[in-house]
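Private note to self, pasted from the team thread so I don't lose it. Backbone tokens:
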């Protein structure tokens, strides 16, 4: 009989088929065994979870957690009738966060990100993706990515970074997106990659940002560096980003409110995950929902994330994002749970997390609920009982 560092027993395992009772054995930070409670094949200290729900630690696969300042004024303007695009074109929006992020010291950026990260961790998150994209100059893009890495070293969480230099066109390059890519974005990507700061490459394909030909230039550079790609696509209008992402074998296409059935088919063929961001849909009072029925019909895996950012989604609750995905986009509670576990892992290209299975990392969340559907059902309530990161309770 194998020995385990810890055996969690008498749990309800989720996501999974129906009433799935059992336990999980952990050794060296990994899951050694998962199975029915009456068949534990290993020996070691046991902890009785008294019927609580046990899930993989949650994965927030799309955030802009590191940024300077806030945009509460812009929120007020939008309530008075200004649109997100009008504000962006008038020099507000992303570009105003760029100013605040450039001005902030590395320590100040770190200090501002800490409470946002802590809010996610308090809800059982064990992996967080963090993007750059509020620098739009080499030094600030690198600074953001260093802060992201530092958060991953200081907290019991795995941080995955995405380079998002193609997020907006900085004021100094207004009307010259290609020159911005040549002079700033692509060299910054190479520098960040050389310093080990980049896990994936993202972009914003939109009328107020970059078109598909420009994103393709960024993707070509990513491919040359051996980095996977993803994309903010079809958020405010249909621009061909989802199809482009699929053509490049992207890990994910994100937002997708204006994606079509054809986009869903292309994504299914490419294995590109649809990352749904209901916080941005909600905050922008969008009315067109992403084509969830088409994703379902085509078998496109759907992930859910907070999109935590100061403009379109000042949201740091992944549980609330799950609730919104159900209420606003009509996902089932079970789909919502897959959306923040195995499907979110796929959106990040991570094969060793997001599932309760032997060999996976022992990043786990224990919930004081009876039914896994309660995680998506409640609003503004946190039932986390405890969490494990690499097999250690924290
Ligand atoms: N889409 C988004 O929702 C965020 N970035 C993007 O490309 C919003 C960023 C912001 O408004 O600051
Ligand atoms: Fe985003």
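Design output:
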């Amino acid at each position: 009989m194998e020995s385990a560092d810890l055996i969690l027993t008498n749990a309800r395992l989720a996501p999974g088929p129906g009433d799935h009772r059992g336990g999980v054995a952990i050794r060296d930070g990994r899951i050694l065994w998962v199975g029915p409670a009456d068949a534990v094949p290993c020996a070691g200290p046991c902890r009785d979870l008294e019927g609580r729900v046990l899930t993989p630690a949650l994965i927030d696969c799309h955030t802009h957690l590191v940024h300077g300042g806030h945009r509460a004024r812009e929120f007020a303007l939008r309530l008075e009738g200004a649109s997100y695009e009008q504000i962006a074109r008038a020099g507000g929006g992303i570009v105003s966060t760029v100013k605040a992020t450039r001005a902030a010291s590395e320590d100040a950026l770190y200090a501002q990100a800490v409470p946002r990260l802590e809010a996610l961790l308090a809800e059982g998150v064990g992996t967080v993706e963090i993007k750059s994209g509020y620098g739009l100059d080499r030094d600030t893009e690198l600074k953001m990515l260093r802060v992201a890495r530092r958060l991953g070293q200081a907290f019991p969480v795995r941080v995955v970074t995405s380079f998002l230099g193609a997020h907006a066109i900085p004021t100094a390059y207004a009307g010259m997106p290609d020159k911005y890519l040549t002079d700033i974005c692509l060299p910054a990507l190479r520098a960040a990659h050389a310093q080990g700061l980049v896990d994936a490459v993202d972009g914003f394909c939109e009328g107020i940002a970059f078109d598909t030909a420009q994103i393709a230039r960024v993707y070509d550079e990513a491919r040359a560096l051996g980095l996977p790609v993803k994309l903010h696509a079809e958020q405010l209008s249909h621009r061909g980003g989802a199809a482009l992402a699929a053509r490049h074998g992207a890990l994910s296409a994100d937002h997708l409110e204006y994606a079509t059935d054809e986009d869903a088919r292309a994504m299914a063929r490419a294995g590109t995950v649809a990352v749904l961001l209901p916080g941005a849909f909600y905050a922008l009072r969008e009315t067109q929902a992403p084509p969830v029925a088409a994703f379902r019909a085509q078998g496109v895996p759907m992930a859910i994330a907070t999109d935590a950012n100061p403009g379109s989604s000042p949201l740091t609750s992944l549980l609330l994002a799950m609730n919104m995905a159900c209420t606003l986009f009509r996902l089932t509670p079970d789909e919502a749970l897959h959306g923040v576990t195995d499907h979110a892992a796929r959106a990040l290209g991570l094969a060793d997390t997001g599932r309760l299975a032997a060999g996976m990392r022992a990043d786990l969340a224990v919930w004081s609920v009876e039914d896994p559907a309660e995680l998506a059902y409640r609003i503004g309530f946190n039932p986390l009982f405890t969490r494990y990161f690499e097999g250690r309770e924290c």
